[in-house]
C-alpha cells in the first residue's frame, strides 16, 4: 500500500517516520549483534563436537538458541535455525547423544532466548507503536482528502509480452475442464469468426474446486493458449480499508482490459467480494457490496464486441451471490477437482521434468501412494524429494527420497532427535503393531503400507494404509473394518500393558466421527433406517463443517447416541477377539519394530506369513 506515489505535499511527515523507523531497526540489530554475536549452524556443530561448548539454551519454539562457550569463559553466541520446519538441533545435525557425549548442558527455555534484549525491546516498542500510529493517521487523512484515487488505481498485473507462457500442457489431470475451456480459447483467438455469426460469447467463466488444484494455473493457461493478455487480481485485494476504493479499482481494471482486448481478466478468490450481499460477519460490508455491484455493472456493460472474458475462481461456490451466477454473467462453471491416479501421475511428470530422477523412480507408484493430494501438494512433494536428495549429497532423486518426502508432507518431519524412553517405545510399538495386525487379518481393510515407531509431527508412531485404487464409494463393511483397525492400537496397549495411554486420542476421534457419520449421514444403522439427521453447513470443497443444525427430537438424539455406541462397542469386541487370537503375531511385529523402527509392506507381510502357532514368548 505505502509504496504508492510519494511526492505529494504533506507527505514529508511520512518520510520522516519511515526514516526514524529504519534507524530504530538498525539500532536494534546493532545492539543485538553486540549482546550475542551470531554463530552459524555448522559452526555450532563443529564447536559441540570439539567440546568447546558448555551449554545450549534453546527457545521454546526451537528456532533459536543461546550458546555458551567454554573459552572465553562465559562468552555467548546466538544461533538461529535456517528455513524449513526442522528444529534447530536437527538442522545442525546434532543429536542428544552428541550433546551428552561432549558434556554440553542443554535446556529449553519457555521464553524467548533473546535475553539481554528485553529492556531494549521494552523501550523500543512504544516508539514503534507511535510510528505505526502516525503512519495510520496519515493514511486516514489521505483517504479523507479525496486522494483515495492513488489507492484506487487497479493493481491488476498486466503480464507484459502480452501472454503467460503457461499452456494446457502444463496443467494435468483436469481433462474435462480443458475441453470446456478450449471453446473459450478459440473465441479469444478468433473473436471475429464468432461475432460474424452473431453468437453470444460467454462473458464469465467461474472455476470452482478445492485449493491447490490448478484454478489459477488453468486461467493462465487459457490466456497462454489463446495468446492474449492476462490481467489478474485477487478478490481479497479489493477488500480494502477505504470505502469506494474497491469499486474504483474495478472500474480501472475493466478500462485497462478493454484497451487490450481480446484479453482475460482473472478474478481470483472472488468469494472475498462476491459473497451473498447482506451476509457474513465483520466490517466492510458496504465496501464489498459496492465492489460486487461494480463488477456486475461492468459485466452488463460489455458490448458483444468487447472481447474480454472474465475468469473467476473460488473454492466456495455455495456462498456466492446468486446475482453473479445469472445467465450473462458467470454462466459457465468449470469444475477443477482433485486429480485421480492418472492425473497425479501426469502432474508428477510435469513437476519432475528437468529434475534428475534415478532409475528406480516409479511415478505411477508415487501417484498411487499420494491419494487425495492436490496438484500443489504434488508439486511440493517433488520439491521436498529434491531437497531430501540434496541433503544426501546425491546427484539424482531416488524412490526412497520420494517416500521420505511423502511422509514428511503428510505427517510432518521425522523427529529422530526426540528423546523417547524405552517404555514409551514399547507402548508405541505394540500400539502400531495392533493397528497393523488387525488391519491385516480383516480382508476389507486396506493393505498395510508401512508401520513405524519413528515419531513424526505430533504422532509417536504411524501405520499407513494404502488403498488399492481411488475410491469414491465406501461400504458399511469397509467402515466397520476401519473402526476395528482404528481401535487396534488402543486394544493392543490394553492387552499387553493392562493400561491405556493418551496415544490413542486421534484414533478415538476418528472412531467417534466415523461411527456418528455412519448413523447420521449415511443411513448405515438398521435401527435408525436410511435417513440423515441434522442439517450440516459445510465448506463444500474444504470438507470442513461450519455448523450443524438439529432437526430431530431429544428422543431421536438419544437413539443416535445409542446406535453410535453400539457400532463402536461391536468394533471393540471384534478387535479384542482378533488380537487375542493373533497375540503371537502382535508380539512378533512389535518386537521387530523395536528392533528396526520401520517395517514396509514386504517386511510386514513376511512376518505375517508365520503361522499363528509359532508363538513368541512375551
Ligand atoms: P488454485 O488456484 O486452485 O488454488 P494453483 O493454480 O494456484 O491452485 O496451483 C498451485 C500450484 O500447484 C501450481 O502453480 C502448480 O505448480 C501446481 N498445480 C496445481 N494443480 C496442478 C495441475 N492440475 N497440474 C499441474 N500442476 C498443478
Ligand atoms: Mg489460486
Ligand atoms: Zn493409533
Secondary-structure topology with pairs:
Blueprint (H helix, E strand, L loop, with lengths): L11 H24 L2 E2 L1 H9 L3 E7 L4 E6 L6 E5 L7 H5 L3 H6 L3 E5 L8 H30 L1 H4 L4 E2 L16 H15 L1 H6 L7 E5 L6 H12 L3 E5 H4 L6 H15 L3 E6 L2 H4 L10 H16 L7 E7 L7 H4 L6 E4 L5 H12 L10 H7 L5 H17 L7 H13 L10 H20 L6 E5 L9 E4 L10 H22 L7 H16 L14 E5 L4 E6 L4 H28 L1 H14 L1 E3 H9 L9
Parallel strand pairs: 1-4, 2-5, 7-10, 7-11, 8-9, 9-10
Antiparallel strand pairs: 2-3, 3-4, 6-8, 12-13, 12-16, 14-15
Bound molecules: adenosine-5'-diphosphate (ADP), magnesium ion (MG) and zinc ion (ZN).
Magnesium ion binds next to helix 9.
Largest sheet: 6 strands, mixed
**Can you tell me the CATH class of the largest domain?**
Mainly Alpha
Q: Can you tell me the number of structural domains?
A: 4
Catalogue the unreliable spans.
1-10, 144-152, 280-284, 614-618
Q: What is the CATH architecture term of the largest domain?
A: Up-down Bundle
- Please name the fourth-level CATH homologous superfamily of the largest domain: Peptidase M41
Order of the strands making up the biggest sheet = 6-8-9-10-7-11
Q: Tell me the helix content.
A: 40-55%
- Specify the overall morphology: globular
The structure class reads: alpha/beta
Rg, rounded, reads: 30 Å
* Ligands, deduplicated: adenosine-5'-diphosphate, magnesium ion, zinc ion
Amino acid at each position: 500500500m505505502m509504496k504508492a506515489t510519494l511526492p505529494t505535499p504533506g507527505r514529508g511527515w511520512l518520510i520522516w517516520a519511515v526514516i526514524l523507523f529504519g534507524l530504530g531497526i538498525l539500532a536494534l540489530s546493532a545492539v543485538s549483534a553486540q549482546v550475542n554475536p551470531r554463530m552459524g549452524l555448522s559452526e555450532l556443530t563443529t564447536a559441540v563436537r570439539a567440546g568447546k561448548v558448555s551449554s545450549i539454551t534453546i527457545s521454546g519454539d526451537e528456532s533459536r538458541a543461546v550458546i555458551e562457550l567454554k573459552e572465553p569463559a562465559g562468552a555467548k553466541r546466538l544461533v538461529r535455525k535456517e528455513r524449513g520446519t526442522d528444529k534447530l538441533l536437527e538442522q545442525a545435525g546434532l543429536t542428544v547423544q552428541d550433546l551428552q557425549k561432549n558434556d554440553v548442558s542443554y535446556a529449553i527455555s519457555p521464553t524467548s532466548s533473546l535475553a539481554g534484549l528485553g529492556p531494549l525491546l521494552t523501550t523500543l516498542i512504544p516508539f514503534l507503536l507511535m510510528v505505526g500510529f502516525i503512519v495510520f493517521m496519515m493514511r486516514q487523512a489521505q483517504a479523507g482528502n479525496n486522494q483515495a484515487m492513488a489507492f484506487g488505481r487497479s493493481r491488476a498485473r498486466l503480464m507484459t509480452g502480452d501472454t503467460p507462457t503457461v499452456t494446457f500442457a502444463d496443467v494435468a489431470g483436469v481433462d474435462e475442464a480443458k475441453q470446456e475451456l478450449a471453446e473459450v480459447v478459440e473465441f479469444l483467438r478468433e473473436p471475429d469468426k464468432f461475432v460474424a455469426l452473431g453468437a453470444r460469447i460467454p462473458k464469465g467463466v467461474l472455476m470452482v474446486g478445492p485449493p491447490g488444484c490448478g484454478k489459477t494455473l488453468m486461467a493462465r493457461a487459457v490466456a497462454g493458449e489463446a495468446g492474449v493478455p492476462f490481467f489478474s487480481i485477487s478478490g481479497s485485494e479489493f477488500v480494502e480499508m477505504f470505502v469506494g476504493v474497491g469499486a474504483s479499482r474495478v472500474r480501472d481494471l475493466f478500462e485497462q482490459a478493454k484497451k487490450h482486448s481480446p484479453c482475460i481478466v482473472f478474478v481470483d478468490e472472488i468469494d472475498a467480494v462476491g459473497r451473498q450481499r447482506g451476509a457474513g460477519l465483520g466490517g466492510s460490508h458496504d465496501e464489498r457490496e459496492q465492489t460486487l455491484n461494480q463488477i456486475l455493472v461492468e459485466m452488463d456493460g460489455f458490448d458483444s464486441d468487447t472481447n474480454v472474458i472474465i475468469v473467476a475462481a473460488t473454492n466456495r461456490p455455495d456462498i456466492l451471490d446468486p446475482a453473479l451466477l445469472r445467465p450473462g454473467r458467470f454462466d459457465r462453471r468449470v469444475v477443477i477437482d482433485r486429480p485421480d491416479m492418472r492425473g497425479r501421475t501426469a502432474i508428477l511428470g510435469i513437476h519432475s521434468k528437468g529434475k534428475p530422477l534415478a532409475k528406480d523412480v516409479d511415478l505411477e507408484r508415487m501417484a498411487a501412494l499420494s491419494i487425495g493430494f492436490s496438484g500443489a501438494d504434488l508439486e511440493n512433494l517433488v520439491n521436498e524429494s529434491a531437497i531430501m536428495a540434496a541433503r544426501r549429497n546425491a546427484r539424482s532423486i531416488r524412490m526412497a527420497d520420494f517416500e521420505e518426502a511423502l511422509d514428511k508432507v503428510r505427517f510432518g518431519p521425522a523427529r529422530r532427535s526426540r528423546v523417547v524412553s524405552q517404555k514409551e517405545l514399547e507402548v508405541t510399538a505394540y500400539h502400531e503393531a495392533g493397528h497393523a495386525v488387525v488391519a491385516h487379518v480383516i480382508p476389507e481393510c486396506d493393505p498395510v503400507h508401512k508401520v513405524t515407531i519413528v515419531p513424526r509431527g505430533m504422532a509417536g508412531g504411524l501405520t499407513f494404509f494404502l488403498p488399492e485404487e481411488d475410491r469414491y464409494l465406501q461400504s458399511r463393511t469397509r467402515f466397520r473394518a476401519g473402526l476395528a483397525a482404528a481401535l487396534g492400537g488402543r486394544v493392543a496397549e490394553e492387552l499387553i500393558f493392562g493400561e491405556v495411554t493418551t496415544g490413542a486420542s486421534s484414533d478415538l476421534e476418528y472412531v467417534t466421527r466415523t461411527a456418528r457419520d455412519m448413523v447420521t449421514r449415511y443411513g448405515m444403522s438398521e435401527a435408525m433406517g436410511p435417513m440423515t439427521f441434522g442439517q450440516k453447513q459445510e465448506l463444500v470443497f474444504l470438507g470442513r463443517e461450519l455448523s450443524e443444525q438439529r432437526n430431530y427430537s431429544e428422543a431421536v438424539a438419544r437413539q443416535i447416541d445409542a446406535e453410535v455406541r453400539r457400532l463402536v462397542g461391536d468394533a471393540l469386541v471384534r478387535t479384542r477377539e482378533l488380537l487375542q487370537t493373533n497375540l503371537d503375531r502382535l508380539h512378533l511385529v512389535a518386537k521387530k519394530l523395536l528392533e528396526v523402527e520401520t517395517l514396509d509392506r514386504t517386511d510386514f507381510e513376511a512376518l505375517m506369513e508365520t503361522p499363528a502357532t509359532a508363538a513368541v514368548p512375551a
